[in-house]
């Protein structure tokens, strides 16, 4: 049985002291050990950005891919190696800017991988420009008068595009972060975990203190049902996305399980895909 030591590399991360990405690194290693996964049975695929360096810091199969393309590579790795546990990791610029297209399609496709985004609401590696999740009005190096654009809400996007497991975590709460990554890895299908991972050097607004003060824990909220999609959309609005925990979870066929074995039309007729009533009448 492997231990944390087996997952560590000799290379030390070059992240700034206090960067939220350290917690994500520790949480991935701890989750793998807790789930009894051997290093040779796991792959970590990352994009470009400070967070993209993570694939070089875990002793598993890994690839540091092109900007915004990590999800495409990770899905390919999983489809070609169905027995590997595949984690894809990156930042908000990588995943919700240049890579947004892949995020939406990964959600609807439901390949059995886990996608972890270290969302620090800024471009850290290029020294502090506004990112797709920077709040409107935030002053950055590229928006000295305040960000004029509305941010993307990754949780709403994941819900809308069909992701079957969606959660949000915070680098300042390692215990919950580990638990959510474990649940995501155990989930059969595409699991997405958005992690508030503060950039202590370039984002002086969305800090550890800010998140500690404002986050509510959905896992402890009485009456919240993660299987209820409507409730999930509502809670994102109600809390302005300031929560941690499992937002949404359902079981549906993965891409591999949905592969047609005969004629696609036969499968539709046999009810192997879900169809709305109007479509059924037309077959
Ligand atoms: Fe982390 Fe920000 Fe430093 Fe990058 S610049 S390593 S995101 S603290
Ligand atoms: Mg970022």
UniProtKB/TrEMBL annotation:
Residue ranges of every copy of the Pyruvate ferredoxin oxidoreductase beta subunit C-terminal domain listed in the record: 199-259
Residue ranges, annotated region (Disordered): 129-149
GO molecular function: iron-sulfur cluster binding; metal ion binding; oxidoreductase activity, acting on the aldehyde or oxo group of donors, iron-sulfur protein as acceptor; thiamine pyrophosphate binding
Necessary cofactors: thiamine diphosphate; Mg(2+); [4Fe-4S] cluster
The Thiamine pyrophosphate enzyme TPP-binding domain, residue ranges: 48-195
CDD domains: TPP_OGFOR
GO terms, biological process: cellular respiration
InterPro entries, A to Z: 2-oxoacid:Fd_oxidoreductase, OFOB, PFO_beta_C, THDP-binding, TPP_enzyme_TPP-bd
The UniProt record lists the keyword Oxidoreductase: yes
Record keywords: Iron, Iron-sulfur, Magnesium, Metal-binding, Oxidoreductase, Thiamine pyrophosphate
Pfam families, per the entry: PFO_beta_C, TPP_enzyme_C
Biased composition (Polar residues): 129-145
PANTHER family: 2-OXOGLUTARATE OXIDOREDUCTASE SUBUNIT KORB, 2-OXOGLUTARATE OXIDOREDUCTASE SUBUNIT KORB-RELATED
Protein's recorded name: 2-oxoglutarate ferredoxin oxidoreductase subunit beta
The organism of origin for this protein: Cytobacillus oceanisediminis
